[in-house]
Amino acid sequence: MKSPCKETDNGKLHSGDESRVGWAQSAPDPLKKGFENPPESARPRVWWHWMNGNISKEGIKLDLEWMRRVGLGGFQNFDAALQTPQVVDKRLPYMTLNGRTHSSMRPPSPIS
C-alpha cells in the first residue's frame, strides 16, 4: 500500500492536501518549562569568595541583587585570606558585620 504522504524538497512529509490538515496546539512541554524556570531545588548555587575582607556593604548588596536577578538558588560563602592585599578603603572582617547586614545576607529568592 502506498503512503498518502509525500516528501518535500526540504525532507518534510505532507499529505498533499494541506486544506485538510488541522494544526493542533501542542501541550506545554514540562521538561522545557522546568529548564526555562527551574524549581528552587534545581537552581545553581555559587561559591562567593570574600578575599581577606576586601568587601563593602554596598558590594554585598549589589552581589545579592545580581544573584537574585539572574536566578541563582543560593551561595556558599567563605573568606579566603591567603595574604590578599587590601584593595578597599576599609576591610570588613569576615563574620563581624552588624546584625542588620547579616539579616540581609540570605540566599536569593526564587524568581517568580
Your description of this structure?
- The protein is α+β, with helices and mostly antiparallel strands and 112 residues long.
- The protein has a domain at 47-112.
- Helix content is 24%, strand content 14%.
- The chain is built from three helices and four strands.
- It has helices at residues 30-36, 57-70, 99-104, and strands at 6-7, 13-14, 45-50, 74-79.
- The protein has a two-stranded antiparallel ribbon with strand order 1-2. A two-stranded parallel sheet has the order 3-4.
- α2 (57-70) links the parallel β3 and β4 (74-79).
- The protein is elongated.
- It starts with 5 loop residues before the first strand and ends in an 8-residue tail after the last helix.
- The mean pLDDT is 76.
Fraction in helix = 10-25%
Low-confidence stretches: none
Shape: elongated
By DSSP, the count of extended strands is 4
Structural class: alpha+beta
Q: Determine Rg (CA atoms, Å).
A: 27 Å
Strand content: 5-15%
Number of helices: 3
Q: Helix and strand succession?
A: EEHEHEH
Order of strands across the main sheet: 1-2
Distance between the termini: 54 Å
Q: Overall mean pLDDT score? A: 76
Main sheet summary: 2 strands, antiparallel
